[in-house]
């Protein structure tokens, strides 16, 4: 085992971890970004999220300056298909997840002070006088000790907090989602009212047992490119079976190929199961639904957020509770502090929040802003 000079250790290279890493690199802080998988981007790239929420308020103005604004510029510059899009009363950035992955990879490469370690997990945390002094990580079967300036749990499921004290985490129960990207669609095939008619046709077929029950709650969304669409299945993570869902998708594909504009449809990409709430931490403060609805300000705010409460109930499905027009709320640093440790933080979708507060604050733009705001607050904004 060898010890390196101290670095900011970030576990998880999803939206939150990426923002933490870039914000730290801009302050010349050495960063070790540990990712358990072999790819960057977390849920966005793994679960094929193409409608990035949380970057804009309900007027379509950017909520948080800094990395969020720069990310939008980079995504728009990288592809003529990246664009701002109105969905109901919200604004999102429509982006091909593959473009997102390329853009973030290029962005990290601009900073030699960020070292990304893939297929790496923390397996021991050394605490001394309310600080994490070092962590031991395993990479390709080899253990290594890393000295830490600070540690951020950006794993989306509070893995590092759990390893310190599992009682500090409450399990989530929100519905999970499986997203499938279809290509070969005639452009405009989902334009109003055609998409609605197709959705009804699919749901009716599911009711009549012509299609599997998983199709009864399916959503359809137009894609980023004109000849693609996204199928969105809503599933329980507990009963998820990947092979079964691949078979369900094939059955659905054969069914919709008979629909006008879908004759040449094919599966372009099948996502990993996306889990909306994989556990939330009990931090120094827990953000509440009332905080969101009151548009609460905090003295230790790290960022602003304004997404509606998009709660995916395990039995009843999704409900959308909009915040009052023009409202935004703040996320405080105290909701990112945990366990009385002075250099340990949690950020992103597993931060300290009530389930319905998390159901708003977990969107991609808020995770970017939370990560950047946390690093700037702890290390000082240069
Ligand atoms: C089905 C679904 C649909 C969604 N739709 C939208 C949408 O349309 N718009 C929107 O804005 N948001 C959407 N979201 C929410 C949003 O995508 C996520 O909440 C957000 O991306 C979470 O970012 P994160 O960085 O906190 O965590 P994640 O993206 O989960 O990243 C965590 C990273 O940590 C890694 N990791 C996990 N454990 C460890 C470990 N022990 N050590 C090292 N690495 C580890 C993971 O591999 C992953 O790369 C959706 C989520 C789901 C599940």
Report on this structure.
The protein is α+β, with helices and mostly antiparallel strands. The chain has two domains: 3-173 and 278-379, FAD/NAD(P)-binding domain, CATH 3.50.50; 176-275, Alpha-Beta Plaits, CATH 3.30.70. Helix content is 27%, strand content 29%. The chain is built from ten helices and 21 strands. It has helices spanning 15-25, 43-46, 67-78, 97-109, 159-164, 194-207, 242-256, 289-293, 355-361, 364-379; strands spanning 3-11, 31-34, 51-52, 83-87, 90-94, 114-117, 120-128, 131-139, 142-153, 169-170, 176-183, 219-222, 229-235, 266-270, 274-275, 280-281, 301-305, 309-313, 317-321, 329-332, 344-346. The strands form six sheets. Strands 1, 2, 6, 7, 8, 9 and 21 form a seven-stranded mixed β-sheet that branches. Bound molecules: flavin-adenine dinucleotide.
């Amino acid at each position: 085992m060898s010890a390196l000079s101290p670095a900011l250790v970030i576990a998880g290279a999803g939206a939150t971890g990426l923002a933490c890493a870039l914000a730290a690199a801009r302050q010349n802080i050495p960063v070790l970004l540990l990712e358990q998988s072999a790819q960057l981007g977390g849920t966005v790239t793994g679960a094929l999220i193409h409608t990035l929420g949380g970057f804009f308020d309900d007027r379509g103005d950017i909520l948080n300056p800094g990395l969020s604004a720069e990310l939008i510029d980079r995504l728009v510059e990288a592809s003529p298909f990246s664009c701002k899009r109105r969905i109901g009363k919200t604004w999102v950035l429509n982006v091909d997840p593959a473009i997102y992955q390329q853009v973030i990879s290029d962005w990290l490469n601009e900073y030699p002070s960020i070292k990304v370690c893939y297929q790496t997990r923390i397996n021991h945390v050394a605490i001394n006088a309310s600080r994490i002094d070092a962590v031991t990580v395993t990479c390709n079967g080899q253990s290594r000790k890393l000295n830490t300036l600070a540690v951020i749990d950006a794993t989306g499921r509070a893995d590092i907090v759990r390893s310190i004290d599992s009682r500090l985490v409450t399990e989530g129960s929100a519905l999970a989602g499986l997203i499938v990207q279809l290509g070969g669609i005639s452009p405009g095939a989902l334009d109003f009212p055609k998409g609605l008619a197709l959705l009804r046709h699919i749901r009716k077929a599911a009711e009549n047992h012509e299609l599997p029950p998983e199709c009864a709650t399916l959503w359809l969304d137009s894609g980023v490119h004109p000849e693609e669409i996204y199928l969105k299945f809503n599933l329980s993570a507990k009963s998820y079976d990947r092979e079964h869902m691949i078979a369900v998708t094939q059955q659905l594909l054969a069914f919709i190929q008979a629909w006008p504009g879908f004759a040449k449809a094919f599966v372009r990409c099948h996502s990993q199961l996306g889990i909306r709430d994989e556990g939330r931490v009990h931090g120094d403060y827990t953000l509440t639904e009332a905080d969101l609805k009151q548009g609460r300000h905090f003295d230790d705010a790290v960022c602003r957020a304004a997404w509606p409460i998009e709660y995916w109930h395990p039995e009843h499905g999704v409900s959308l509770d909009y915040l009052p027009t023009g409202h935004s709320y703040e996320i405080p640093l105290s909701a990112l502090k945990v366990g009385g440790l002075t250099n340990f933080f949690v950020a992103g979708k597993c931060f300290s929040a009530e389930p319905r507060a998390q159901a708003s604050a977990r969107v991609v733009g808020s995770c970017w802003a939370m990560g950047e705001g946390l690093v700037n607050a702890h290390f000082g904004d240069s």
